[in-house]
Amino acid sequence: MDFVVELPSSQGKTVIWVVVDRFSKMAHFIPLPHLPSAKTLADLFIMHIFKFHGFPENIVSDRGVQFVSKFWRAFCTLVGTELSFSSAYHPQTNGQTERVNQSLEQYLRCYVSDNQSTWSELLPWAEFAYNNATHSSSGRSPFFVVYGLHPKAFSFSGSNSPVPSANSSVLRFSEVWSLVHDSLSAASLAQKKAADKSRREAPQYKVGDLVWLSTRNIKLKIPSPKLGPRFIGPYPIIAIINPSSVRLQLPPNFRISNTFHVSLLKPAANTRHQSVPPPVLIEGQPEYEIQEFLDSRHVRGKLQYLTRWRGFGPEENSWVSVDDIKADRLRKQFHLKFPEKPGGPVAPPREGGNVRKSALPARQGRPPRCHRRGRPPRRLLPVPA
């Protein structure tokens, strides 16, 4: 199950809840005024799905707040339904629903491109047309798989009745059905062509393989994402979830799910390994060498620098307080290049008072370093690609 969101308002509805049965491929399109809470989702499930199909053994969804909430997890556990979630940043793991979403959106785009406030009226027609169409994997329609027959589709003989209003309604329904059927067929064909064009064989990974991870959906601490690395790592695979999803051993400062679709990975061939430089003990305190400063900011009255550490990749960049930094030369170089940045000679005044600048002791002949509080996590990193 999934949601199609950010639709133009149609009779007060802006969201479509899409539910697809994995076996029969039968789909239900339920219009909603907005994204529901977990409690409301449970009520909607009883109202629209349970009455036709009962409780399923398993539900596949993305990691939306409704689906990962404690209430929804507890509700599904109590009714005997197992939950499965799509891979991080790859909702196509929820494949069937994603494909239905694409067909539905393409259909709506074909039919309501001009008058976008009528889509909610067309959902019953779209649902019937989808469930009455032959599915490529089974060779049968969802209706036939579930009921053993095809419900009678809309037909209009063209003859008129003595009731003009009934004639006009049936004529309008006939036109709508024809357009809906054609639009949904065109949408399915366009989707198939696009998928066939981009489809390629996924590499066969195994536990222990090193892979590069795409930064497409990862927010790195760098000034400009456009100029940042396209891949980071490599990281070892610690588990194979299924042929299309793996689990990686990520740095501890990555607060994201470590399960990824294989489309976000690429093999790390002939990878050279380099040990992270160990800290230097100065006056009993471990310190790490700074390579350069990338940015600066004020946080709660304290000046901080976005620090790149020598021997570490961009994923280890971190903000460090000026009080923990002993790198006058690098700070001067940074502010010569960016005098308008916080802490520089022409930085704009900061609201809420001035920052007290204290002189830092000079470190003649020593590389710029930082106390333990600002160090990156201790681990081994290969040389970046």
TrEMBL record:
Residue ranges of coiled coil: none
Subcellular location as annotated: Nucleus
Transmembrane regions listed in the UniProt entry: none
Region (Disordered): 337-385
Cellular component GO terms held in the UniProt record: nucleus
InterPro entries: Chromo-like_dom_sf, Chromo/chromo_shadow_dom, Chromo_domain, Integrase_cat-core, Retrovirus_Pol_polyprotein, RNaseH-like_sf, RNaseH_sf, SH3_Tf2-1
Ranges for domain Integrase catalytic: 1-150
Stretch forming the signal peptide: none
A GO biological-process term: DNA integration
A GO term, aspect molecular function: nucleic acid binding
Residue ranges constituting the Chromo domain according to the UniProt record: 288-335
Stretches with biased composition (Basic residues): 366-378
Name of the protein: Integrase catalytic domain-containing protein
Lineage: Eukaryota, Metazoa, Chordata, Craniata, Vertebrata
